[in-house]
Amino acid sequence: MTSLFANLSKKSVADFNSLNSHEKALLRPVFEWGRGFYLTVGGLAAILALGAFAYFVQLRNGLAVTGMRDTVSWGLYIVNFVFFIGISHVGALLSSILRLTGAKWRHPITRMAEAITFAALLFGALMPIIDLGRPERMLNLIRYGRIQSPILWDILSVTTYLTGSTIFLLLPLIPDMALLRDKFIHAPGWRRWIYRTLSFGWKGTPEQHARLDRAMNAMAVLILPIAVMVHTVVSWIFAMTLRPGWNSTIFGPYFVAGALASGAASVVLAMVVFRRMYHLEDFLTLRHFKNMAALVLTLDLVYLYFNLAEYVTVAYKMELGDKAMLLDLFNGRFAGLFWFTQVFGLMIPAFLFILPMFKPITWLKRIRLMRPIPLAVAGVAALAAFFGLSLIQRFIGFDLALPALIFRIGGFALIGLAAISLLPTLQSRPITSFVIASALIVVQAWLKRFIIVVPVLVNPLLTDPAGAIYRPTWVEWAITAGALAGFVLVYFLLSRMFPIISVWETAHAKEEELAFASAPLLPTPATIPSPEV
Amino acid sequence: MLRKLTVALITALLISTFHPTFTHAHSQNVSISVSRDGYDHMANYAVEVEAGHEVTITFNYADEDLDADNPHKLWILGAGVNLPAVEVSRDNPTATITFTPTKTGTLTILCVNPCIGMEKLVGGTIKVVGPKPSGASASLALELTQRDDESVLARVMLKDARGSALSDVPIVLTMHTSLGGELELGTPVTVEDGSAVFVIPAVSGQKLVVSALFEGGNGLSFAQNSGEITMPGAPVAHPLGALSSPTAPPVLALILLVVLGGIWATYGMVVFQVFRIRGDEGPVGKTTKQAEN
User: HEC states along A207-238?
Assistant: First the structure.
């Protein structure tokens, strides 16, 4: 045991040894902060520092250091804002719905989801401030803002949501804080202070449990409509304008559906990372992944439906105002991004979620040519040849269009075959399949926000029909990278400060399951009350 | 052979990465790629040429990827230069224009066809500076006076080492912003007595820190000066908006108040419950301290 805790003092090891096996399994990451922990924190903090430096450059020199100008006045910062707010929805959804419906399988997942909400909102709420040219005048938005403005609604709702989700995260932490307060008594002083403060004097009395239940039920009922309200209001920043591409009646539910899908997918990613990193295989089982997969699949299909409803109705009419923007999306500068989000970000993940339910595709393994690694290598080589030929053609002047086209088609075909040859493997490893699908959905979520914000702005109605240009600068990319790193850093630190799976709720659920399993299916004669005479 | 090919490939990659190109050498040759995306961004206009020396600008057509021809007619003006427009197109992909700027200042390049009306997007500038300074010093004075309730008059005076006024020289005026940033206010040009004036908008109570810069030229080294002024009176009080605004629709205000009030009241109730948990703790604090000991 001691060898696992090379960085811990003997007294802390003794603290750890005083835990029962259930607590040990869940609290090990909290007790041990090894070299990997510090390296991870250092790496993420360095990226965050780069983002902070970029923001300082922006503060010093103004928004002229970004790619935003008078025509394209919203860029990566607003994309990040909508993305983070979307990701944050999952805490409310999972915890609230599952708590209210009494779903027992939720216990190992809810805190992960709630922590995602908290960390994502921290950085999501920062983004509009970063987007301001004069952030020191931020309070003026409230002091002098117009109540009719969706921006003011947004500020109020995001602030309310951040407060609510912080409370929602902290409430179920109270008993675990008390456990750490009582058991990790040789922790550094500042950590002891946090555990003592956040445990609110918890001792586990029935009165305290009753109060905590009341508070948690109230928050569970309240947080869900707040979450829906917030993302609806975020969508109204766009939908309350008359711009083609944003002037839509379904933007509220469309945004909420997208947010829930990306948020739930991000929880699947967190589950697999924590499961592997903290050895939580006994708590995060295949059953949890399957339940989450069913949830993400449903949300993914709902979001796909909204995409269909949003684009097909507008594209069918092809009003003049919408035309430039839609053609830019379907067949222009943003076509690659658009089709990636629809096909690789929504349709293929849906297929990957249901793949393990199909009858095993064993016949595919019998085809000798269907070997993923050789096919992928050949595909990449063909694409490299395509790029090489394109360069040579550009600078030497030979007409190499036909061989380049052959290499291009061949490359994509080979990579496609490599992907198909992976299907039997993915079928036999459902968690891997779910994780790939979830990762695609999360990437899709960011790209989708980009193609919601930017293509509309670069196709203004009144200036140039050829459209404007938006090229994010290094400052915007650095701030984006810093925000993503900061989000991961906060999430990671939360998982090392507190148990990322609720100790008391999982123990409680285990006791209930045991009691349920040992209870007789039918009342025995001894338990049947005798009829009163 | 292989080495040459590698060098050529890397060079080609670098060139394609930094498209659109905008290069300038000390020989006063400037090359500009012109496409439908405009021909450059503001960040690249650090290009300078010297007044009194010949400048050659070459425009290169860069819309080859379009199906249709997309000709651009380009016009150069400013700094004593007013030349006929030149055109680049698919049939005539390169146009070269040679001229000698007679004054210091800014050369503006406008695409007048088809991009007229959006010169901010596809317009660019080249700075024309005086001959390299010989090292003789110049003196630059800056005086800031309140003009009226809403503006400050900045007056600069440029003289050479003998005290002679220097005319027709641009002076760059900047204002300090928060966190040490600089906002360029404008570039007034000195008149015969060596002075130039510029009106800076200001509000009551505002403190302005302004710098004036002569960038050098005509055999003189650069010179700068700065000054500050605080506008009298209290800072302007803006009427409060949001819920207190008389123009706020009452129904909307009521809805917001009810919804947000309900939510925050529930938060309050929850926090109250949490603090009641502390009230129910019993002897736990003592237990913890005992455990620590």
Answer: HHHHHHHHHHHHHHHHHHHHHHHHHHHHHHHH
